[in-house]
Amino acid sequence: MPAACPVQSDGTGQEKESGMSTIESLLTRGIEAFGAARYDEARGLYAEVLRRDPSHGIANYHTGLIAGLAGDHDRAIEHIRRGIAGNVPEPKAHYNLGTLLHQRGRYNEARQAYLRTLTLMPGYVNALSNLADVEYKFGNLGRAEEYARKAVSLAPAFFMAHNNLGNILKDQGRYTESAESYRQAMQHRPDYAPANSNLLLSLGYDMRIDPAIYFDEHKKYGERFSCEPVAGNAVDKSPDRRLRIGYVSP
Q1: Are 196 and 225 in contact (CB under 8 A)?
Q2: CA–CA separation, 95 vs 113, rounded Å?
Q3: What are phi and psi for residue 236, nearest 5 degrees?
Q4: Model pTM?
Q5: Which residues contact 182 (CB under 8 A, 6 or more apart)?
Q6: CA 74, CA 106: separation in Å to the nearest integer?
Q7: DSSP 124
Q8: Among the CATH numbers 1.10.10.10, 3.40.50.1970, 1.10.287.130, 1.25.40.10, which is that of 122-224?
Q9: Which pLDDT tens digits describe the chain residue by residue (250 residues)?
Q10: Where are the alpha helices (DSSP H) in the chain?
Q11: How many CB atoms lie within 10 A of CB 248?
Q12: 69 half-sphere exposure, CB direction, 13 A CA radius
């Protein structure tokens, strides 16, 4: 079978239409692979789209998401920003950008991304909860409480939002309210360790609490999260071992 000849211009613009058709075909296959979680395949297809059109919105956005899943956050931020500049219409594009910036400690940029998300989708509870955490980190406790309360009012079962609200109330010395928020988080997700440990911390600060209640909560925590001793050979001492980094959810 003979090799395909490159498209030559005949002055009619048909070669441009053919090139666009190739981009659309690559994009369709990339979206299909991305949706099926075949990320290596999708990455290659999107790379070919971006070789032809570096500003392509969807190809940049999905490339950014794939980079984020691989832990390459700086590259993810770069491509998602290009996707947004390429008119990706999804509010979640701004939200995903915000979460990546949030994880990198770039809180002011994260705040702007979450606010943009909420402009496009005012009731998006994930953005509200994360924005509450950003304001909490800036020390804006009143504003943080407002966002967290709005999140739990819209999604009463959203355990992370209850945990965020508990943190905000705890830092204001409102220990009875913070304990109730942590218990709400635990009601909806009993195995959510941050809420369990935060409850113990909040009860420990509250000088009015009955020591028997505090002891009982410690006992419950031990029953939920006790673990087997680590085997002596479980530690990988190889200098080439991969560093494991855990992001602590707000």
Answers
A1: yes
A2: 6
A3: -80, 110
A4: 0.76
A5: 162, 163, 166, 195, 196, 198, 199, 202
A6: 11
A7: -
A8: 1.25.40.10
A9: 333 333 333 333 433 444 556 999 999 999 999 999 999 999 999 999 999 999 999 999 999 999 999 999 999 999 999 999 998 878 999 999 999 999 999 999 999 999 999 999 999 999 999 999 999 999 999 999 999 999 999 999 999 999 999 999 999 999 999 999 999 999 999 999 999 989 988 888 877 877 777 777 777 777 777 654 434 333 343 333 332 333 333 3
A10: 14-35, 39-52, 57-69, 73-85, 91-103, 107-120, 125-138, 141-154, 159-171, 175-188, 193-205, 211-225
A11: 6
A12: 13
| Extents of the domains making up the chain | 122-224
DSSP track, 99-121: HHHHHTT-HHHHHHHHHHHHHH-
Going 111 to 112 to 113 to 119, the CA torsion angle's sign is positive
